[in-house]
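Tokens as discussed.
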């Protein structure tokens, strides 16, 4: 061998994929291991998946239960602040995993309180970094949702956007739906918002689509209740 890096020139229809069904499910951020002869199609492609220690990693169902429970907790979105603004889990705070060491004072003073971290999915190691940092500082009830944002979105769970992000990014191509009762939305609302009370949402949606007043873009309801946070892409399927 000359020491030059091997180049993968594709894969066979018989190529084996591990932790993924096929090439179409691989993203640009995914880390993969390839078995092949230099210059030849891959015989085996493995999507590298990071796992947390038993008892630390939680499922999507458990993550949702924590969000809906009355138990005190702190949820840390360990992605970058920029990515946090456009979409994050309800109640989460933004602390990039690499900066948690220097922002540890933002975690609860009670080190027995539940702390949960998430990041960008099974192939991302930053969830583990956030978990290890909290444990190293003496927190005794730390969990990690390794599935992260991709798994949460794939399961059809709800996401939130920050007010600052909305203020900077809303434009004439976005449709804003205010699902509060008319008695509330008539008093104050986001500029250009369409009033569609939640109780009448299904019937009004059909009219909304028939009149072609929707676009294939997110909707930003102005109500804190998690059941009201929806995406306009789903409306076209009704």
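Sequence:
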């Amino acid at each position: 061998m000359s020491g030059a890096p091997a180049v993968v020139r594709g894969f066979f229809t018989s190529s084996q994929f591990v932790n993924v069904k096929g090439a179409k499910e691989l993203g640009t951020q995914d880390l993969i291991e390839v078995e092949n002869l230099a210059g030849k199609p891959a015989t085996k492609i493995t999507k590298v998946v990071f796992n947390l220690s038993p008892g630390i990693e939680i499922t999507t169902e458990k993550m949702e239960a924590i969000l809906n429970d009355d138990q005190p907790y702190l949820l840390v979105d360990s992605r970058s602040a920029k990515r946090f603004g456009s979409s994050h889990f309800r109640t989460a705070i933004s602390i990039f995993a690499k900066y948690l060491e220097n922002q540890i004072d933002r975690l609860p003073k009670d080190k027995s309180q539940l702390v949960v971290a998430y990041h960008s999915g099974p192939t991302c190691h930053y969830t583990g970094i956030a978990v290890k940092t909290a444990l190293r500082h003496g927190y005794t009830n730390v969990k990690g949702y390794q599935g992260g944002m991709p798994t949460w979105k794939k399961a059809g769970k709800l996401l939130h956007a920050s007010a600052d992000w909305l203020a900077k990014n809303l434009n004439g191509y976005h449709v804003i739906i205010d699902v509060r009762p008319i008695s509330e939305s008539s008093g104050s609302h986001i500029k250009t918002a369409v009033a569609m009370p939640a109780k009448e949402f299904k019937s009004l949606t059909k009219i909304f689509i028939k009149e072609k007043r929707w676009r294939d873009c997110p909707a930003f309801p102005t109500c804190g209740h998690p059941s009201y946070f929806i995406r306009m892409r789903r409306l076209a399927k009704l």
